[in-house]
Amino acid sequence: MKVIAINGSARKDGNTSILINIVFEELNKEGIETEQIQLAGATLSGCRACYKCFGQKNKHCAQDNDILNELIDKILPAQGLILGSPTYFSDVTANMRAFIERCGLVARANDYMLKGKVGAGVVAVRRAGGIPAFNALNLFFHYMQMVMPGSSYWNVGLGRNIGEVWKDEEGLNTMRDLGKNMAWLMKKLYP
Ligand SMILES: Cc1cc2nc3c(=O)[nH]c(=O)nc-3n(C[C@H](O)[C@H](O)[C@H](O)COP(=O)(O)O)c2cc1C
Protein backbone atom coordinates (compact mmCIF):
# COMPACT_ATOMS: atom_id res chain seq x y z
CA MET A 1 0.00 0.00 0.00
CA LYS A 2 1.18 3.47 -0.76
CA VAL A 3 0.41 7.04 0.26
CA ILE A 4 1.40 9.94 -1.96
CA ALA A 5 1.64 13.40 -0.40
CA ILE A 6 1.47 16.52 -2.53
CA ASN A 7 2.99 19.48 -0.69
CA GLY A 8 1.80 22.81 -2.08
CA SER A 9 4.33 24.94 -0.22
CA ALA A 10 6.53 27.38 -2.11
CA ARG A 11 9.32 26.49 0.37
CA LYS A 12 11.11 23.19 -0.04
CA ASP A 13 11.49 21.16 3.16
CA GLY A 14 9.51 23.71 5.17
CA ASN A 15 6.98 23.28 7.95
CA THR A 16 4.38 21.54 5.79
CA SER A 17 7.00 19.04 4.69
CA ILE A 18 7.99 18.37 8.31
CA LEU A 19 4.35 17.77 9.30
CA ILE A 20 3.81 15.41 6.38
CA ASN A 21 6.92 13.45 7.34
CA ILE A 22 5.58 13.00 10.87
CA VAL A 23 2.40 11.46 9.45
CA PHE A 24 4.62 9.32 7.21
CA GLU A 25 6.55 7.95 10.21
CA GLU A 26 3.36 6.39 11.58
CA LEU A 27 2.35 5.04 8.16
CA ASN A 28 5.81 3.52 7.67
CA LYS A 29 5.62 1.82 11.08
CA GLU A 30 2.53 0.03 9.74
CA GLY A 31 4.32 -1.04 6.57
CA ILE A 32 2.71 1.55 4.30
CA GLU A 33 4.98 3.02 1.64
CA THR A 34 5.11 6.81 1.37
CA GLU A 35 6.33 9.45 -1.09
CA GLN A 36 6.19 13.22 -0.74
CA ILE A 37 6.14 15.40 -3.86
CA GLN A 38 6.98 19.05 -3.16
CA LEU A 39 5.61 21.65 -5.55
CA ALA A 40 8.21 24.26 -4.50
CA GLY A 41 9.79 25.63 -7.67
CA ALA A 42 6.96 24.39 -9.89
CA THR A 43 4.15 26.53 -11.24
CA LEU A 44 0.77 24.94 -11.80
CA SER A 45 -1.81 26.91 -13.76
CA GLY A 46 -5.43 26.98 -12.76
CA CYS A 47 -8.22 25.27 -14.67
CA ARG A 48 -9.02 26.98 -17.98
CA ALA A 49 -12.56 25.55 -18.03
CA CYS A 50 -12.05 24.07 -21.50
CA TYR A 51 -13.89 20.92 -20.36
CA LYS A 52 -11.77 18.86 -22.75
CA CYS A 53 -11.26 16.33 -19.94
CA PHE A 54 -14.94 15.38 -20.30
CA GLY A 55 -14.38 14.69 -24.01
CA GLN A 56 -11.06 12.89 -23.88
CA LYS A 57 -11.77 10.93 -20.66
CA ASN A 58 -8.14 9.78 -20.45
CA LYS A 59 -7.54 10.69 -16.79
CA HIS A 60 -5.37 13.60 -17.85
CA CYS A 61 -5.76 17.35 -18.12
CA ALA A 62 -5.78 18.73 -21.67
CA GLN A 63 -3.53 21.55 -20.47
CA ASP A 64 -0.39 19.45 -20.64
CA ASN A 65 2.38 22.03 -20.12
CA ASP A 66 3.18 21.52 -16.43
CA ILE A 67 3.49 18.65 -13.96
CA LEU A 68 -0.23 18.20 -13.20
CA ASN A 69 -0.57 15.03 -15.28
CA GLU A 70 2.59 13.58 -13.72
CA LEU A 71 1.03 14.15 -10.31
CA ILE A 72 -2.14 12.36 -11.39
CA ASP A 73 -0.08 9.41 -12.65
CA LYS A 74 1.60 9.17 -9.24
CA ILE A 75 -1.68 9.35 -7.33
CA LEU A 76 -3.75 6.88 -9.35
CA PRO A 77 -1.99 3.66 -8.27
CA ALA A 78 -1.79 4.78 -4.60
CA GLN A 79 -4.44 3.93 -2.00
CA GLY A 80 -3.87 7.09 0.05
CA LEU A 81 -3.41 10.77 -0.69
CA ILE A 82 -2.20 13.52 1.64
CA LEU A 83 -2.59 17.09 0.47
CA GLY A 84 -0.38 19.45 2.45
CA SER A 85 -0.37 23.22 2.26
CA PRO A 86 0.86 26.17 4.24
CA THR A 87 -1.73 28.81 4.95
CA TYR A 88 -1.48 31.73 2.52
CA PHE A 89 -3.96 34.49 3.28
CA SER A 90 -6.18 32.06 5.17
CA ASP A 91 -6.33 29.56 2.31
CA VAL A 92 -4.21 26.99 0.50
CA THR A 93 -1.40 28.13 -1.81
CA ALA A 94 -2.01 29.01 -5.45
CA ASN A 95 -0.31 25.79 -6.57
CA MET A 96 -2.52 23.69 -4.31
CA ARG A 97 -5.60 25.51 -5.53
CA ALA A 98 -4.57 24.85 -9.14
CA PHE A 99 -4.04 21.18 -8.28
CA ILE A 100 -7.50 20.96 -6.69
CA GLU A 101 -9.21 22.63 -9.64
CA ARG A 102 -7.60 20.56 -12.35
CA CYS A 103 -7.17 17.17 -10.68
CA GLY A 104 -10.70 17.58 -9.32
CA LEU A 105 -12.27 18.28 -12.69
CA VAL A 106 -10.31 15.48 -14.39
CA ALA A 107 -11.46 13.08 -11.64
CA ARG A 108 -15.03 14.25 -12.07
CA ALA A 109 -14.78 13.68 -15.84
CA ASN A 110 -13.40 10.18 -15.33
CA ASP A 111 -16.03 8.52 -13.18
CA TYR A 112 -14.61 9.91 -9.92
CA MET A 113 -11.25 8.22 -10.43
CA LEU A 114 -10.10 8.96 -6.86
CA LYS A 115 -13.20 7.37 -5.28
CA GLY A 116 -12.46 5.11 -2.31
CA LYS A 117 -8.91 6.32 -1.71
CA VAL A 118 -8.08 7.52 1.78
CA GLY A 119 -7.41 11.27 1.93
CA ALA A 120 -6.06 13.61 4.59
CA GLY A 121 -5.19 17.29 4.66
CA VAL A 122 -2.16 18.71 6.50
CA VAL A 123 -1.74 22.45 7.07
CA ALA A 124 1.05 24.67 8.41
CA VAL A 125 0.13 28.11 9.71
CA ARG A 126 1.92 30.91 11.50
CA ARG A 127 -1.09 32.18 13.46
CA ALA A 128 -4.56 32.30 11.87
CA GLY A 129 -6.40 31.05 8.80
CA GLY A 130 -5.32 27.43 9.08
CA ILE A 131 -8.86 26.10 9.40
CA PRO A 132 -10.14 27.60 6.11
CA ALA A 133 -7.10 26.06 4.42
CA PHE A 134 -7.81 22.71 6.10
CA ASN A 135 -11.45 22.99 5.04
CA ALA A 136 -10.45 23.58 1.41
CA LEU A 137 -8.52 20.30 1.41
CA ASN A 138 -11.33 18.39 3.11
CA LEU A 139 -13.90 19.75 0.64
CA PHE A 140 -11.81 18.25 -2.16
CA PHE A 141 -11.66 14.80 -0.53
CA HIS A 142 -15.37 14.85 0.17
CA TYR A 143 -16.35 15.77 -3.38
CA MET A 144 -13.98 13.14 -4.76
CA GLN A 145 -15.84 10.45 -2.80
CA MET A 146 -12.70 9.72 -0.83
CA VAL A 147 -12.62 8.50 2.77
CA MET A 148 -11.14 10.70 5.50
CA PRO A 149 -9.58 9.56 8.78
CA GLY A 150 -9.91 11.79 11.83
CA SER A 151 -7.30 12.84 14.33
CA SER A 152 -7.15 14.09 17.92
CA TYR A 153 -7.45 17.70 16.72
CA TRP A 154 -7.64 19.42 13.32
CA ASN A 155 -4.57 18.71 11.21
CA VAL A 156 -2.83 22.05 11.65
CA GLY A 157 0.72 22.71 12.88
CA LEU A 158 1.90 26.12 14.09
CA GLY A 159 5.11 27.77 12.90
CA ARG A 160 6.44 30.61 10.79
CA ASN A 161 10.12 30.01 10.03
CA ILE A 162 11.21 26.62 8.77
CA GLY A 163 11.42 24.18 11.68
CA GLU A 164 9.24 26.18 14.08
CA VAL A 165 6.53 23.51 13.92
CA TRP A 166 8.82 21.28 15.98
CA LYS A 167 7.88 23.50 18.95
CA ASP A 168 4.15 22.82 18.48
CA GLU A 169 3.90 19.61 20.49
CA GLU A 170 0.11 19.40 20.16
CA GLY A 171 0.33 19.87 16.40
CA LEU A 172 2.96 17.14 16.17
CA ASN A 173 0.78 14.75 18.18
CA THR A 174 -2.17 15.56 15.93
CA MET A 175 -0.06 14.47 12.94
CA ARG A 176 1.02 11.29 14.74
CA ASP A 177 -2.59 10.41 15.56
CA LEU A 178 -3.59 11.20 11.99
CA GLY A 179 -0.92 8.80 10.73
CA LYS A 180 -2.10 6.05 13.06
CA ASN A 181 -5.75 6.54 12.09
CA MET A 182 -4.92 6.73 8.40
CA ALA A 183 -2.98 3.46 8.60
CA TRP A 184 -5.84 1.82 10.53
CA LEU A 185 -8.38 2.97 7.94
CA MET A 186 -6.27 1.92 4.97
CA LYS A 187 -5.81 -1.54 6.42
CA LYS A 188 -9.58 -1.88 6.87
CA LEU A 189 -10.33 -0.68 3.34
CA TYR A 190 -7.44 -2.42 1.60
CA PRO A 191 -6.74 -5.63 3.61
C1 LIG B 1 2.17 34.65 0.94
C2 LIG B 1 2.07 34.15 2.35
C3 LIG B 1 0.86 34.26 3.01
C4 LIG B 1 0.73 33.81 4.32
N1 LIG B 1 -0.49 33.92 4.94
C5 LIG B 1 -0.64 33.48 6.21
C6 LIG B 1 -1.91 33.58 6.87
O1 LIG B 1 -2.93 33.97 6.32
N2 LIG B 1 -1.96 33.19 8.17
C7 LIG B 1 -0.88 32.72 8.85
O2 LIG B 1 -0.99 32.40 10.02
N3 LIG B 1 0.32 32.56 8.23
C8 LIG B 1 0.47 32.94 6.92
N4 LIG B 1 1.68 32.78 6.28
C9 LIG B 1 2.78 32.07 7.00
C10 LIG B 1 2.89 30.59 6.61
O3 LIG B 1 1.64 29.94 6.65
C11 LIG B 1 3.85 29.87 7.57
O4 LIG B 1 5.13 30.48 7.53
C12 LIG B 1 3.99 28.39 7.29
O5 LIG B 1 4.72 27.78 8.33
C13 LIG B 1 4.72 28.13 5.97
O6 LIG B 1 4.82 26.76 5.74
P1 LIG B 1 6.00 26.16 4.83
O7 LIG B 1 7.28 26.27 5.63
O8 LIG B 1 5.61 24.73 4.58
O9 LIG B 1 6.03 26.95 3.58
C14 LIG B 1 1.84 33.23 4.98
C15 LIG B 1 3.06 33.11 4.29
C16 LIG B 1 3.17 33.56 3.00
C17 LIG B 1 4.49 33.40 2.26
Would you give an account of this structure?
The chain has 191 residues and is an alpha/beta fold. The protein has a single domain (2-189), classed as Rossmann fold (3-Layer(aba) Sandwich), CATH 3.40.50. The protein contains 6 helices and 5 strands; from the N terminus they run βαβααβαβαβα. It has helices spanning 15-29, 52-56, 68-75, 94-109, 130-143, 169-189, and strands at 2-7, 33-38, 80-86, 118-125, 156-158. Strands 2-1-3-4-5 form a 5-stranded parallel sheet, with helices on both faces. α4 links the parallel β3 and β4. α1 (15-29) packs across α6. The longest helix has 21 residues, at 169-189. The protein starts with a strand and ends with a helix. The model has no long low-confidence stretch (mean pLDDT 98). Flavin mononucleotide is lined by residues 9, 11, 14-16, 86-90, 124-129, 159-160, 162.
What is the chain-wise order of helices and strands?
EHEHHEHEHEH
% residues in beta strands? 15-25%
Q: What's the tally of helices?
A: 6
CATH superfamily: Flavodoxin domain
By secondary-structure content and strand pairing, the structural class works out as alpha/beta
Biggest sheet architecture: 5 strands, parallel
Number of domains: 1
Can you tell me the CATH architecture? 3-Layer(aba) Sandwich
Low-confidence stretches: none
Distance between the termini: 9 Å
CATH topology, which one? Answer: Rossmann fold
Overall mean pLDDT stands at 98
Shape: globular
CATH class: Alpha Beta
Instruction: Supply Rg.
Output: 16 Å
Strand arrangement, major sheet: 2-1-3-4-5
Query: Which molecules other than protein and nucleic acid are bound?
Result: flavin mononucleotide
Percent helix: 40-55%
